[in-house]
UniProtKB/TrEMBL annotation:
Transmembrane region(s): 31-51, 63-85, 97-123, 135-155, 175-198, 219-242, 262-282, 294-312, 338-366, 373-393, 413-437
Family under the similarity heading: Belongs to the GntP permease family.
GO CC list: plasma membrane
Name used for this protein in its record: Gluconate permease GntP
UniProtKB keywords: Cell membrane, Membrane, Transmembrane, Transmembrane helix, Transport
Length: 438
């Protein structure tokens, strides 16, 4: 069996295990990694070591970032900072530009908060505002959810882009900067523009009216809410600016390089938020640590999935098949960015999980990068865009949107699935344009 046939059979097996057999992606990745390793010729006595190395390398490079991001997101949600951000953004944009207010609110909230948590968090805001201004709920909510989706697929510290940055050894600052550049036109088209075109979609019944649970005097200040939620971004921008101003070997340059490391940057942000959104708002340190424990429990399975995706990548590398894969795709003359997007998009449609699709595509594309001049940060964004393609019935996000918004299956396809497709396609176009000009 040729290496390409083995690769295709491996991907097909992964799809079958996740989609049809309903086996958790964590276990599926392990099964597929061992089978692929044997088919690719790795001896039994080396196979376990190869799988363990892949898991260890992936976990070692992403664990701190993922856990820290979950902790910050938990504090932003529980403290009411997200509610403060939403309220202030709506005061700025008003009823006339409510879609733009929802778009920017979702994006700001989406940067520190993981997607599923963010989704549940913003739904009460969407329902309350739709009721207050007597506007269609999909018209109000889709721009905010598009923002969450873009942040989830494009921007660290979210799980998939963080893992992809590690896999491709991409520059975190460039990935974030270029991700923001690609995100803006994507959000405009998938958010306000598209939702205005489907304004007539109505829920099957009336969605619930959810009011805010916190009193105004229990909420953090506007400055505290924005600054704490966006602190990782601020630190990254600040340290990148410092590194351009001072020599690398100077004390300031070395300090900036140290702080800009993703793990260090996120730990500093966690420590600050523990005080700003925890202790200074009346919580004890024990309560804050309890929230952190809850946050880790919520993403434990996700961490395992990401770690085990490294096993499949490692057996491809250790078997030597990676070089053959790279040579095959090099001869195909397909742009690596487009190829990465196609693979990720195909896996997304088949598997449903954006994270699993992106990580699997990265393992296939990685060998090609050593023979390519493509910037790794652009590859992160290309695969991230592909991993958001056409969410449908095998994606939990599809059902969350349908049930929360009380829509028919047809209208869920017309709204949610098409929105995700627009995000994916426009994201690819943005990446290709950046590649042409950089």
């Amino acid at each position: 069996m040729s290496f390409l046939a083995i690769l295709l059979a491996t991907i097909l097996l992964l799809v079958l295990l996740i989609s049809f057999c309903k086996i958790n992606p964590f276990i599926s990745f392990l099964i597929v990694a061992f089978i692929a390793g044997r088919l690719l010729g790795i001896p039994f006595q080396q196979l376990a070591s190869s799988v363990q190395k892949g898991i260890g390398d992936m976990a070692g490079s992403t664990l701190i970032v993922l856990c820290s991001g979950a902790m910050i997101g938990k504090l932003v949600a529980v403290s009411g900072a997200a509610e403060v951000i939403a309220s202030r953004m709506m005061r700025i944009f008003g009823e006339r530009y409510i879609q733009w207010g929802m778009l920017f609110t979702g994006f700001i909230i989406g940067i520190p908060i993981f997607y599923n948590v963010g989704f549940v968090l913003v739904v009460p805001i969407i329902f309350t505002l739709a009721h207050q201004y007597k506007l269609p709920i999909v018209f109000v909510g889709l721009p905010m959810l598009a923002s969450l989706s873009v942040a989830h697929g494009f921007l660290p510290p979210h799980p998939s882009p963080s893992a992809l940055v590690s896999i491709f050894h991409a520059d975190l600052g460039k990935t974030l900067l270029w991700g923001l550049i690609v995100a803006f036109p994507t959000l405009v088209l998938a958010g306000p523009v598209f939702s205005s075109m489907i304004k007539n979609i109505q829920p099957v019944g009336e969605p619930p009216l959810i009011t805010h649970l916190k009193k105004p005097d229990q909420l953090p200040s506007v400055f505290n809410s924005f600054f704490s939620a966006l602190l990782p971004v601020f630190l990254l921008i600040f340290t990148s600016f410092i590194k351009y101003l001072v020599p690398d070997q100077s004390l300031a340059g070395q300090a900036a390089s140290f702080i800009s490391e993703p793990s260090v940057l996120m730990i500093l942000s966690v420590l600050f938020c523990s005080l700003s959104l925890g202790v200074f708002l009346g919580k004890t340190m024990k309560q804050v640590m309890g929230l952190f424990e809850e946050a880790i429990k919520e993403i434990a399975v996700l961490i395992l999935i990401i770690a085990c995706s490294g096993a499949l990548k490692q057996v491809i590398t250790d078997s030597g098949a990676g070089n053959q894969i790279a040579e095959f795709f090099k001869q195909s003359q397909v742009n690596p960015l487009l190829l990465g997007w196609i693979i990720a998009a195909t896996l997304r449609v088949c598997i449903g999980s954006a994270t699993a699709a992106g990580l699997t595509a990265a393992g296939i594309i990685l060998p090609l990068m050593s023979h390519s001049t493509i910037n790794p940060s652009l590859m992160v964004l290309s695969i991230g865009s592909g991993s958001l393609m056409f969410s449908h019935v095998n994606d939990p996000g599809f059902w969350m949107f349908k049930e929360y918004f009380n829509l028919s299956l047809k209208d869920t396809f017309r709204s949610w699935s098409l929105m995700e497709t627009i995000v994916s396609v426009v994201g690819l176009v943005g990446v290709m344009l950046l590649n042409a000009f950089l």
